[in-house]
């Protein structure tokens, strides 16, 4: 068999042959096999009895077959090879979880993969499969429990079953397994056997597996790519000159920050067209298939303009609004829609007739609009076209663009489970740990007098001035991680919120300690970073005097949220990377930030950890909302949305004469308060860039190191070249990158804040000082590079002359 690419290429270049081939050969064959299952047919060798829709269904089944199988297995094989290499495992396998007659079973799909084995050797053909139920062995248990299993010694594990070893003659000593999940469903299990050079698989191995498994997951859910492939493959059946698919935004509720401009009155509320289920009609992406010329062309346009040739008539919007199929025989004569009468672009293409249909998912929501232009034979679209295209759009809507996938990418609710799980098993503060801060704490809080406890706790925490807690130039370097927990508690006492909101001393201690434990031991996004952000928030409120716009409850929530804002961050190389899931990126769904938020809220949900336990219901709801705003605000993507809004507030208050006017302008407006709060979070999150040079130069290296670790993983696990920011081979470019980051992102934040409140100027000064230092280093590097270039030229020049 020739390789798939060359076959595909040949078919693409010879559409006539392809069409004839499919017509003559494949269709009857396919019909014969496909029909035995879902469709009934009198004579399997002819397809006279097959209705057009049935015919279309079969074509789409074929498409589905073509795109899903081999490609996925090959990708998996590559990942397994890399996993094997990184884990230093003797071999890896993948078991597919499927269901037969409703009973789940596991089967070997890729078996005994090593870094050097070939795909064909490892791919198990159906006759050689080993099949077993999910209540058997470690692999079965992994699929069943949906949890990673790391077994240091299989002889000591009562779940281990040696029946595969018996069949193959292999001796398993230790193993690690991981379930590949899509939503809450297990798709299969990755297994690595016998660590080379060690007795067992390590914690670091677990992380690698977790990470690479997420890459497989991405491979499987890259729905836009699948969608595109399906459409592209069926183009020979769509007898038209062009077609265009518009994908609709599925967001039902707007994010709080998108409501800001409306609530501020800067933008009128939306009054445009809406889908039947109430969404605003927004085409976030258009894919145009231009088939009329000698060379087919496909154009993908993210965020298409309203005057895009396929949208400008208003027809796709109309179809989105009411869900009708619209067949327009002669667009020139139509009065309702404004089709362009002349050529739509330089190709000279003129629209004559159009067929437009909604793509509907299983929940009957319109997910996109497919519009077909000009039948190639010059005739208008007829009923047959309507049927075949309807079947196509139905297929796309049901099996590829299904709403669950959107929901999954947008909401990521399953992450809640992860947070809960982690919290319960590892991160909750123990009583012994409590006693390391609140010495005389005994496990029965009702015995203790709260006033006494406050006194005790206060006396154990460092005094604010002693550790520079109120300075923007605060550095965590001289303080231990344990010491930072106490500094955190001190902040709340300084804010005067502990007594006021009746936070039990032991709850505050336990919460702060648990937050600390929620941060992982990684290079940059660790507890020290979490603490620094909380401390800067505290400083902006107190030293920067921003507190006057906020209530005590606001201030309490803001500082607490700041401490939590990156909790359970896994470094840049983590499961929550939006990398490879374009939908998540497009919808700006702040995936990582949502996880930190969920985690923080899980803490609040447990009474013994809930520092807001004695608030009234309304107050508690306020706190929850402020957590939403503060933590989601740390998504830098959002920063660009709020810049101008923040600047407008600064501009408006600048000419105000009295402080009273300023306070009124802001305090009486919940939205302005939120915008400033969100910008404060950005100011806190980036604050390392404003610290004294000794601190900044070290922290910048830590940030870079975390990126480089991800770059290394990409290079080794995925065989991909990382982007320069993540490539340790580009380390020399760091000063230049820092300069860019300061100028394009950070400068605005601190400049505007110092204009807003002069007390915040030390941050801006610190930033400028660091810019100067980075620039010097960048210049030195540039000069070095220039000298090398010069040398090179000198060496090359004589050779050129000879
Ligand atoms: Zn952060």
TrEMBL record:
Give the enzyme's EC designation: 3.1.4.-
User: What protein family does this chain belong to?
Assistant: Belongs to the cyclic nucleotide phosphodiesterase family.
* GO MF entry, a single one: 3',5'-cyclic-nucleotide phosphodiesterase activity
Matching entries from PANTHER family are given as:
CYCLIC NUCLEOTIDE PHOSPHODIESTERASE
Residues the entry annotates as binding AMP? 525-529, 566, 685, 738
Q: Name one GO biological process term.
A: signal transduction
What is the protein name given in its UniProt record?
Phosphodiesterase
The record describes how the cofactor is bound as: Binds 2 divalent metal cations per subunit. Site 1 may preferentially bind zinc ions, while site 2 has a preference for magnesium and/or manganese ions.
Source organism per UniProt: Salmo trutta (Brown trout)
Q: Which residues bind Zn(2+) 1?
A: 529, 565-566, 685
Query: What keyword terms does UniProt attach to this protein?
Result: cGMP, Hydrolase, Metal-binding
> Domain PDEase: where?
445-781
Leading EC class: hydrolase
Pfam families assigned: GAF, PDEase_I
InterPro entries under this entry?
Answer: GAF (IPR003018), GAF-like_dom_sf (IPR029016), HD/PDEase_dom (IPR003607), PDEase (IPR023088), PDEase_catalytic_dom (IPR002073), PDEase_catalytic_dom_sf (IPR036971), PDEase_CS (IPR023174)
The entry marks the following residues as binding Zn(2+) 2, namely 566
Record flagged with keyword Hydrolase? yes
Catalytic residues at 525
**Which cofactors go with this protein?**
a divalent metal cation
């Amino acid at each position: 068999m020739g390789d798939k690419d060359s076959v595909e290429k040949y078919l693409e270049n010879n559409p006539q042959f392809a069409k004839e081939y499919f017509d003559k050969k494949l269709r009857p064959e396919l019909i014969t096999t496909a029909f035995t299952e879902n469709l009934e047919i009198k004579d399997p060798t002819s397809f006279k009895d097959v209705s057009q829709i049935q015919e279309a269904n079969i074509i789409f089944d074929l498409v589905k077959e073509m795109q899903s199988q081999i490609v996925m297995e090959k990708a998996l094989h590559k990942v397994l090879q890399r996993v094997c290499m990184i884990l230093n495992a003797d071999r890896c396998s993948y078991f597919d979880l499927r269901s037969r007659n409703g009973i789940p079973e596991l089967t070997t799909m890729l078996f005994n993969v090593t870094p050097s084995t070939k795909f064909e050797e490892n791919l198990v053909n159906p006759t050689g499969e080993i099949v077993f139920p999910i209540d058997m062995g470690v692999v079965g248990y992994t699929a069943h429990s949906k949890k990673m299993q790391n077994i240091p010694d299989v002889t000591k594990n009562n779940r281990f079953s040696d029946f595969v070893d018996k069949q193959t003659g292999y001796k398993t000593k230790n193993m690690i397994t991981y379930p590949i999940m899509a939503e809450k469903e297990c798709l299969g299990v990755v297994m690595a056997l016998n660590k080379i050079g060690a007795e067992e698989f390590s914690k670091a191995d677990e992380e690698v597996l977790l990470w690479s498994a997420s890459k497989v997951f991405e491979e499987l859910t890259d729905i836009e790519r699948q969608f595109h492939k399906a459409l592209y493959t069926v183009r020979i059946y769509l007898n038209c000159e062009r077609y265009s698919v518009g994908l609709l935004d599925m967001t039902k509720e707007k994010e709080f920050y998108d409501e800001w401009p409306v609530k501020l009155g800067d933008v009128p509320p939306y009054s445009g067209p809406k889908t039947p289920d109430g969404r605003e009609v927004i085409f976030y992406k258009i894919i145009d298939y231009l088939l009329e010329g000698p060379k087919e062309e496909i154009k993908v346009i993210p965020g298409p303009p309203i005057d895009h040739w396929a949208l400008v008539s208003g027809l796709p919007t109309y179809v989105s609004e009411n869900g009708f199929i619209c067949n327009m025989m002669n667009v020139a004569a139509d009065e309702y829609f404004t089709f362009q009468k002349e050529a739509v672009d330089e190709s000279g293409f003129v629209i004559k007739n159009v067929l437009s249909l909604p793509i509907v998912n299983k929940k009957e929501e319109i997910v996109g609009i497919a519009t077909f232009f000009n039948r190639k034979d010059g005739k208008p679209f007829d009923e047959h076209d309507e049927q075949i295209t309807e079947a196509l759009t139905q297929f796309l809507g049901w099996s590829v663009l299904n709403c669950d996938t959107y929901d999954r990418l947008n909401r990521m609710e399953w992450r809640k489970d992860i947070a809960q799980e982690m919290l319960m098993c590892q991160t909750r503060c123990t009583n012994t740990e409590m006693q390391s801060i609140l010495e005389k704490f005994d496990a029965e809080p009702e015995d203790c007098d709260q006033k006494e406890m406050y006194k005790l706790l206060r006396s154990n925490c460092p005094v604010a001035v002693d550790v520079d807690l109120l300075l923007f130039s605060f550095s965590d370097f001289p303080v231990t991680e344990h010491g930072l927990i106490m500094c955190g508690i001190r902040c709340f006492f300084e804010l005067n919120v502990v007594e006021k909101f009746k936070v039990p001393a032991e709850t505050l201690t336990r919460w702060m300690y648990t937050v600390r434990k929620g941060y992982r031991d990684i290079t940059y996004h660790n507890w020290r970073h979490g603490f620094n952000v909380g401390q800067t928030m505290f400083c902006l409120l107190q030293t920067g005097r921003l507190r006057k716009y906020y209530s005590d409850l606001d201030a309490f929530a803001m500082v607490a949220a700041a401490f939590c804002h990156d909790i359970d961050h896994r470094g840049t190389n983590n499961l929550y990377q939006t990398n490879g899931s374009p939908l998540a990126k497009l919808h700006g769904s702040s995936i990582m930030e949502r996880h930190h938020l969920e985690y923080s809220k899980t803490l609040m949900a447990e009474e013994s950890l809930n520092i807001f336990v004695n608030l009234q219901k309304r107050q508690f709801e306020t706190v929850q909302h402020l957590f939403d705003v503060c933590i989601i605000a740390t998504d830098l993507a959002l920063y660009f949305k709020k810049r101008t809004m923040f600047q407008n507030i600064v501009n408006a208050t600048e000419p105000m004469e009295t402080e009273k006017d300023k306070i009124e302008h802001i305090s009486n407006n919940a939205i302005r308060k939120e915008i400033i709060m969100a910008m404060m979070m950005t100011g806190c999150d980036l604050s390392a860039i404003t610290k004294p040079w000794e601190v900044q130069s070290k922290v910048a290296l830590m940030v870079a190191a975390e990126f480089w670790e991800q770059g290394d993983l990409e290079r080794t696990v995925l065989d991909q070249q990382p982007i320069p920011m993540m490539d340790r081979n580009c380390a020399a470019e760091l000063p230049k990158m820092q300069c860019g980051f300061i100028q394009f992102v950070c400068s605005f934040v601190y400049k505007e804040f110092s204009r807003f409140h002069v007390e915040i100027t030390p941050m801006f000064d610190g930033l400028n000082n660091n810019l100067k230092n980075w620039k010097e280093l960048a210049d030195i590097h540039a000069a070095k590079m220039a000298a090398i270039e010069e040398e090179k030229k000198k060496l090359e020049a004589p050779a050129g002359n000879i």
